[in-house]
Every structure is written in structure tokens, then in C-alpha cells.
Amino acid sequence: MKLMFASDIHGSLPATELVLAHFERSAAKWLILLGDVLNHGPRNALPVGYNPGAVAERFNSIADKIIAVRGNCDSEVDQMLLHFPITAPWQQILMAEQRLFITHGHLYNPDKLPPLAENDVLVFGHTHLPLAEKQDSIYLFNPGSVSIPKGGFEASYGMLNDGVLSVHALNNDGVIAQVEITP
């Protein structure tokens, strides 16, 4: 199963358009949004092309292909604009030999892990920093941010394809980080 991940969009319409273009080209089954979809939050500057209403409309056009979790900047008011649920703090995707634990990262993260089995994958955003690695017996995966990257990284998104988790630059699709997951 091919999956695409995007996090920390923060209402940026240009970033949303690029995410949707990559999603369409990728032939991924699901677009997984890791929170902070519409609002920029009080600690962030306004992202380029800040337009939460238009971002909601664009994502609503593929609502049946989205799995989403709630970020620390998401609210019930945001849910009123979106045609797919975003209020769950976490989701799980079960694969043949492991699970993906999907969360924003402000509640569960590498420093505060949920109960995970060996070779499970913690998929999170929140830090705006890309990461793809195995740590001890679990995998950690963060696609970075599509609108407000930090740490000197480019805006980025993530993919799961043929057992490889990879982070790609949003503007040129270059690989920033990757790890092969094994059962």
C-alpha cells in the first residue's frame, strides 16, 4: 500500500496545491494529514499564501482519500470547514506485519511514546523537522512541514512505498531522509 504524508500545512494555499499535485502523481491510496491543517498558531509567522478557507476547499475535494489527526493548532471551528474528520488525537493503520501509529506529535512523540510493539512505526509531525530512522525496536517518521520548515530543511512531505519510508523536498522531490521498514 502506497501512502503519502503531509504535516503542518498551517493554512498555506501554495503548499496545499503542491501537496495535492504530488498526491495525484504519486498514485498513493491515502493522503495522511498529521495535523495543523488550517491555522498558523500564535508561535508561527503567517505562511506564504495563508488562506485557510481555500485550503479547506481544496482538501475537501479529496475528502474520501484523507486520513487526518488533530494538531495542536486545530480546533472544532476548523472541523466545521472540513468534510473529513480531524479531531482524533491519533489513528492507527494496520499493515500485514506492523502498525503505523499516526499522531501530530504534541501528545505522543519520541520522548513520550505510545505503547508500540517491535517494528511498529510512530508517524508524527509538530516539530517541522524531517526524520526517518529506526531507534531501538521502533521506527520514527516525521515528514517535516510543507509550509514552515525548520532546522534549515526545505518544505517536505513523506511517502511509504514498497516498505520504504521517505521524506521528499516539496519543491524538487529530492530525498531528504529515508529508512526501510522490515517486519
From TrEMBL:
UniProt domain Calcineurin-like phosphoesterase: residue ranges: 1-160
EC top class, as a word: hydrolase
Q: Note the Pfam families from the entry.
A: Metallophos_2
Q: Name one GO molecular function term.
A: hydrolase activity
Q: Is Hydrolase tagged as a keyword?
A: yes
Q: Which UniProt keywords apply?
A: Hydrolase, Metal-binding
Xref: InterPro entries: Calcineurin-like_PHP_lpxH, Metallo-depent_PP-like, MPP_YfcE, PdiEstase_YfcE_CS, Phosphodiesterase_MJ0936/Vps29
EC annotation from Swiss-Prot or TrEMBL: 3.1.4.-
Name what cofactor the protein needs.
Answer: a divalent metal cation
Family listed: Belongs to the metallophosphoesterase superfamily. YfcE family.
Task: Note the PANTHER family from the entry.
Answer: VACUOLAR SORTING PROTEIN VPS29 (PTHR11124)
Task: Name the chain's protein.
Answer: Phosphoesterase
Q: What is the lineage of its organism?
A: Bacteria, Pseudomonadati, Pseudomonadota, Gammaproteobacteria, Enterobacterales
Gene this chain is encoded by: yfcE
